[in-house]
Structure to design on (641 residues):
């Protein structure tokens, strides 16, 4: 599967294309198939995302996951600061990242 | 410490206003990211792995309590309550919002700080000896010269678009505490026949093509230092490669031209530049130098230290250095607690260090390229009180220059350029060697980790260096031995095949065990490596 990711313009936070909008949570990401470039152009022009790009992903039982470690870390947050990740209360939240 | 004059204030205020307008236009969609990116980078604002990152300049690593408190304030108000001190003697914030950037720059300007020229192909923050002005072994304080270079290089119209970024270090002691010869220009102030001058080493650097800067001129009269620096830059700006980013640094130019030909061209250029009158009048230099005058220290202050608290004594032995004035000392605050993140400090810790500087160190602090903090002017009689406060705040780890005093870049946990994580490796090594007795048995051992070939973690210059690479999508770590960024400068050599995260920790333990087995009396790790060579270590690592 192919995922579309970028950063929020104002906050810089990592965002994922859900099919209709942008979410902070990788679990909400949608497979964009071959439509990534077209979505990217429209969304960037509208300033709903900054510096977007297309990545390879895979569907798992827990939802979509980026294929490469760099984007898996982007999806979670710094592995060395679980308190700063999107799921600070869940000690197992990062188990899939590395 | 240097205080801004009306020109400094006006320049920084104008830049804050300009960048505030640029941010407003970007948020309103009047300019694209492609147009905005070079503008934000000129103001130290990067887009990193998780958010915007702001790099704030700390000129030659020197700051006062008021400035340090502002760094804590920014961490608290605009970031996530911490900052990361870097190998360029700067501080970085990892969670900055674009819409907050103008307010942050205004706050910084209010304490005479900024983020200008902390990115881009320009002359970056000038670095120096963190003990400058206090060190017992220096011949003069190098910071007035570093400040002169800062003023000269700020918004220098000719050098704002160099072929590549440009880093300058200035030191004035025989012991090199600033990795001077691994800079684009390393300036060492020396004494010859009773006169001070500058030795110029040009063309050093780390990154993907590490090189030690050759000596280009052994003695430049200090009154000509600026014009000679300008001549060095002019030759580079004219002939440095702009067609290939990987060959654009001055080290490549000098390597290709040869040091002799580069020197000849600089001399020719210097003959012209000197006639332009850019070297400052003595009165102007004296105005700058006066602001770096040694604080009024009482040389009759007691020299003895009550060492009856054994934990305090251990810290004194490891983290306190000799000061040029009797009865005083230099305190090195380690930002490397066992299992911690090298260089990170919380806002409360930053505030505490500011308080201690105000109370005990004549209001001065330094940031070191090894990602630690220094209180440069402390009465020995105050050391115990300082240690107690540091200890209560988790800042009294007695490991300066030991194996757990690790330099580590942010790595793949934060950096979009990184290929592998640096911080977890540093944490695992520090934990493996957490026993202080074991660390002291190993003695001085500088371990440096980079998460990619750009070498922000100075891995080439580590007695033990680690380079994180991406091997088919998996983190892998190469091991280097024998580097040094000090006066015995050398570049590390790769041992062989790399390791995974746990494997690299095991490999380092085999290396240190081998060192203990091989060393002779008084030898540091790097001395033993240089004497016996790679072969026995390779045998120990790979069998």
């Amino acid at each position: 599967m192919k995922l579309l990711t970028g950063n929020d313009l104002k906050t810089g936070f990592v965002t994922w294309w859900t099919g209709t909008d942008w979410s902070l949570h990788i679990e909400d990401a949608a497979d964009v198939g071959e439509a990534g470039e077209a979505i990217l152009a429209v969304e960037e022009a509208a300033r709903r995302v900054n510096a977007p790009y297309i990545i390879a992903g895979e569907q798992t039982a827990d939802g979509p996951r980026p294929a490469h470690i760099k984007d898996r870390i982007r999806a979670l947050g710094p592995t060395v600061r679980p308190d700063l990740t999107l799921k600070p209360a869940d000690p197992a939240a990062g188990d899939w990242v590395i | 410490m240097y205080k801004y004059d009306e020109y400094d204030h006006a320049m920084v205020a104008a830049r804050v206003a300009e960048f505030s307008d640029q941010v407003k236009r970007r948020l309103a969609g009047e300019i694209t990211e492609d147009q905005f990116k070079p503008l934000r980078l000129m103001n130290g604002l990067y887009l990193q792995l998780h958010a915007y990152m702001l790099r704030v300049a700390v000129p030659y690593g020197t700051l006062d309590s008021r400035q340090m408190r502002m760094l804590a304030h920014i961490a608290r108000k605009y970031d996530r309550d911490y900052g990361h001190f870097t190998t360029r003697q700067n501080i970085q914030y990892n969670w900055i919002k674009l819409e907050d950037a103008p307010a942050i720059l205004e706050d910084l300007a209010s304490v005479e700080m900024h983020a200008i020229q902390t990115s881009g192909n320009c002359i970056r923050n000038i670095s120096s000896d963190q003990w400058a002005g206090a060190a017992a072994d220096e011949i003069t304080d190098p910071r007035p010269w570093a400040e002169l270079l800062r003023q000269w290089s700020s918004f220098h119209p000719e050098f704002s678009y160099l072929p590549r970024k440009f880093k300058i270090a200035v030191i004035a002691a025989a012991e090199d505490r600033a990795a001077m010869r691994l800079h684009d220009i390393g300036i060492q102030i020396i004494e010859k026949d009773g006169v001070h001058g500058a030795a110029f080493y040009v063309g050093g650097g780390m990154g993907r093509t590490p090189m030690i800067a050759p000596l280009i001129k052994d003695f430049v009269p200090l009154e000509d230092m600026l014009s000679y620096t300008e001549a060095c830059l002019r030759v580079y700006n004219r002939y440095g490669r702009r067609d290939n980013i990987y060959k654009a640094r001055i080290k490549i130019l000098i390597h290709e031209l040869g040091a002799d030909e580069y020197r000849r061209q600089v001399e020719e250029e210097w003959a012209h530049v000197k006639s332009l009158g850019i070297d400052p009048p003595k009165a102007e230099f004296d105005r700058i130098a006066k602001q770096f005058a040694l604080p009024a220290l009482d040389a009759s202050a007691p020299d003895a230290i009550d060492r009856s608290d054994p934990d305090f004594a251990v810290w004194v032995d490891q983290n306190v250095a000799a000061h040029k004035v009797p009865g005083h000392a230099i305190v090195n605050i380690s930002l490397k607690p066992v299992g911690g993140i090298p260089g990170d400090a919380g806002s409360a810790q930053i505030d505490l260090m500011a308080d201690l500087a105000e109370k005990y160190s004549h209001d001065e602090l330094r940031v070191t390229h090894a990602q630690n903090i220094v209180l440069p002017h402390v009465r020995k009689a105050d050391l115990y009180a300082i240690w107690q406060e540091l200890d209560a705040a988790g800042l009294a780890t007695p490991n300066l220059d030991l194996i757990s005093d690790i330099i580590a870049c942010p790595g793949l946990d934060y950096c979009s350029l990184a290929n592998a994580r640096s911080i977890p490796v540093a944490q695992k090594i520090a934990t493996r060697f957490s026993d202080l007795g074991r660390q002291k048995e190993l003695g001085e051992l500088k371990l440096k980790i980079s998460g990619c070939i750009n070498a922000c973690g100075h891995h080439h210059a580590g007695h033990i260096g680690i380079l994180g690479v991406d091997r088919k999508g998996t983190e892998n770590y190469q091991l280097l031995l024998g580097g040094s960024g000090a006066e015995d400068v050398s570049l590390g050599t790769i041992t062989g095949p790399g390791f995974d995260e746990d494997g690299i920790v095991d490999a380092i333990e085999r290396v240190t065990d081998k060192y203990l087995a091989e060393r002779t009396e008084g030898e540091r790790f790097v001395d033993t490596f240089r004497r016996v060579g790679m072969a026995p270590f390779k045998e120990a690592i790979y069998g």
Summary: The mean pLDDT of chain B is 97. The longest helix of chain B spans residues 6-27. DSSP finds 17 helices and 20 strands in chain B.
